[in-house]
């Protein structure tokens, strides 16, 4: 596998040397609930366990061999809908007032704030800007941010105003519509290639939701390989491989249509997950690294094969990146964008910085789910987590402690104050929603656990973001 990946990387380098003068195509793939080490692709060259030991994703291995891996790539949120609206608008979930996907939990010490729960018509999406610039635009798969669906927000073609219910209705031989999405993608690319029109396609894969709907043959493979493991872990490994097969079909279509030399392919996840291998702390619903650090791979013209970038990037950096690739001038971008283009990193072998409106990265989750309400701020290698129930802070040096095991708050009070001040200033500047005291709180009736996302009821949840 290693030798074949090296050969593929060399072939890719040859084809990408002819960096086309026309505007590039963009194919953006967003996986659902996939942890940083949820692939058979290492996401850090020096971190043992940065790839899964049970997953088999050969197509993503090839994509990584042909492109750049971002070892510190972050989703804007630790849950799905806030990430999705952030990607569409280039703004943080805190600024958008949409910071949770699941319903609020009650009975705790604090009351969770309300969420917007639908993308506003006043927001300028990345699809609208690209469409205005002459791109054909398509969105396939899970939308989950309301507002009338993708075609109300700049997409020429879509699967409609879908939510999690889309995952559960598709089974073998088309698990969670993976292969149907790949087919529609190929058809869209072919039509627009013939019309000589650049295209932007977002594939918001339903996987890893409804993992039990993986193809029967793939499930059987992992039932044998993981004999004795729980059924959820087996199903997750199976649907991960089915998703990788779908990714491979899209990549094969790009190659078949002769578009590889002028098409950027981006792969990331909407939030982290606890993969069972505790390299990172936490998981979905928390601002620990396990909840927000995700697989992040980019292949395209001018990107050095099998390269690495260790600069911190976040999902909403893609908005200005896509605009730069499309030739959209900075003066034409909407106000309030928080991301910075990563095009320079990709063109410079991963070296450099991302120029954003502020130096720090902030993640805001004033809710109960993976933990009590909290926010996080990163500046350089330092990361501060602030918890709202008792207002305590924790400080970690991610360069030395990626697993967030050694709290430095007591040893470095000046850094705690500096980061806490920046966090509070930012949250106030975007009028971020905060939890409030629960006047009816009874510690004797505190819920025993945090529910988080539940399996959706297709009839109840259809077309309603959660």
Describe this entry's structure for a reader.
The structure is a single chain. The chain has two domains: 2-12 and 23-347, Alkaline Phosphatase, subunit A, CATH 3.40.720; 361-444, Arylsulfatase, C-terminal domain, CATH 3.30.1120.10. It has 14 helices and 16 strands. The protein has helices at residues 2-16, 58-66, 80-89, 93-96, 126-132, 165-168, 178-194, 216-225, 231-256, 289-292, 318-325, 343-347, 413-429, 458-461; strands spanning 25-31, 68-70, 73-74, 110-111, 136-141, 157-158, 199-204, 263-269, 296-299, 307-309, 313-314, 361-365, 374-379, 382-387, 393-397, 436-437. The strands form four sheets. An eight-stranded mixed sheet has the order 6-5-7-1-8-9-2-10, with helices on both faces. Strands 12-13-14-15 form a four-stranded antiparallel sheet, covered by helices on one side. A two-stranded parallel sheet has the order 3-11. β12 (361-365) and β13 (374-379) form a beta hairpin.
Secondary structure blueprint with pairings:
Layout: H1 2-16, E1 25-31, H2 58-66, E2 68-70, E3 73-74, H3 80-89, H4 93-96, E4 110-111, H5 126-132, E5 136-141, E6 157-158, H6 165-168, H7 178-194, E7 199-204, H8 216-225, H9 231-256, E8 263-269, H10 289-292, E9 296-299, E10 307-309, E11 313-314, H11 318-325, H12 343-347, E12 361-365, E13 374-379, E14 382-387, E15 393-397, H13 413-429, E16 436-437, H14 458-461
Helix pairs in contact: 1-2, 2-9, 7-9, 8-9
Rg (C-alpha, Å): 21 Å
Query: How many E strands?
Result: 16
The run of helices and strands is HEHEEHHEHEEHHEHHEHEEEHHEEEEHEH
Name the beta content range. Answer: 5-15%
- Please, what is the CATH homologous superfamily of the largest domain? Alkaline Phosphatase, subunit A
Count up the helices.
14
| Helix share, percent | 25-40%
Largest sheet: 8 strands, mixed
> Which secondary-structure class do the elements indicate?
alpha/beta
In CATH, the architecture of the largest domain is 3-Layer(aba) Sandwich
Runs in which pLDDT lies below 50 for 5 or more consecutive residues are: 12-20, 451-466
Total number of domains: 2
User: What order do the strands of the largest sheet run in, or round the barrel if closed?
Assistant: 6-5-7-1-8-9-2-10
Morphology: globular
Per the CATH scheme, the topology name of the largest domain is Alkaline Phosphatase, subunit A
Q: Briefly, what CATH class of the largest domain?
A: Alpha Beta
């Amino acid at each position: 596998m290693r030798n074949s990946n090296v050969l593929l990387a060399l072939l890719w380098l040859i084809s990408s040397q002819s960096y086309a003068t026309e505007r590039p195509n963009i194919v953006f793939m967003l996986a659902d609930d996939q942890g940083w080490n949820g692939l058979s692709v290492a996401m850090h060259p020096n971190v043992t366990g940065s790839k899964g030991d049970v997953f088999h994703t050969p197509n993503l291995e090839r994509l990584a061999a042909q492109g750049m891996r971002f070892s510190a790539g972050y989703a804007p949120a630790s849950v799905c809908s806030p990430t999705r609206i952030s990607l569409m608008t280039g703004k943080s979930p805190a600024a958008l007032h949409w910071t949770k996907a699941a319903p609020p939990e009650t009975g705790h010490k604090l009351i969770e704030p309300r969420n917007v729960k639908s993308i506003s018509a006043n927001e300028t999406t990345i699809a609208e800007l690209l469409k205005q610039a002459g791109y054909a635009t398509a969105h396939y798969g899970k939308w989950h941010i309301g507002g009338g669906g993708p075609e109300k927000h700049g997409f020429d073609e879509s699967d409609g105003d879908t939510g999690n219910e889309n995952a559960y209705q598709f089974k073998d031989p088309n698990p969670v519509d993976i292969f149907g999405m790949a087919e529609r993608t190929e058809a869209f690319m072919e039509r627009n290639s013939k019309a000589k029109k650049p295209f932007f396609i977002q594939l918001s894969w339903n996987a890893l939701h409804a993992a039990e709907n993986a193809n029967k043959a793939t499930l059987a493979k992992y039932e044998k390989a993981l004999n004795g493991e729980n059924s959820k872990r087996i199903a997750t490994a199976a649907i991960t491989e089915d998703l990788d097969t779908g990714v491979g079909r899209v990549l094969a279509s790009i190659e078949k249509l002769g578009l590889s030399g002028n098409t950027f392919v981006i792969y990331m996840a909407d939030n982290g997950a606890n993969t069972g291998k505790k390299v990172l702390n936490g998981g979905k619903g928390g601002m620990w690294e396990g909840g927000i650090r995700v697989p992040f791979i980019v292949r395209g013209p001018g990107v050095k094969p099998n390269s690495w970038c260790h600069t911190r990037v976040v999902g909403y950096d893609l908005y200005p990146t896509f605009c730069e690739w499309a030739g959209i001038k900075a003066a034409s971008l909407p106000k309030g964008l928080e991301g910075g283009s990563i095009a320079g990193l990709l063109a410079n072998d991963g070296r450099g910085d991302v120029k954003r409106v502020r130096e720090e990265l902030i993640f805001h989750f004033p809710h109960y789910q993976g933990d009590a309400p909290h926010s996080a701020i990163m500046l350089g290698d330092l990361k501060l987590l602030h918890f709202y129930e008792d207002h305590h802070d924790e400080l970690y040096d991610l360069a030395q402690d990626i697993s967030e095991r050694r709290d430095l708050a007591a040893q470095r009070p000046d850094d705690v104050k500096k980061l806490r001040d920046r966090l509070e200033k930012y949250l106030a500047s975007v009028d971020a929603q905060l939890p409030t005291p629960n006047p009816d709180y009874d510690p004797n009736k505190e819920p025993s656990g945090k529910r988080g996302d539940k399996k959706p009821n297709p009839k109840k949840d259809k077309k309603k973001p959660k």
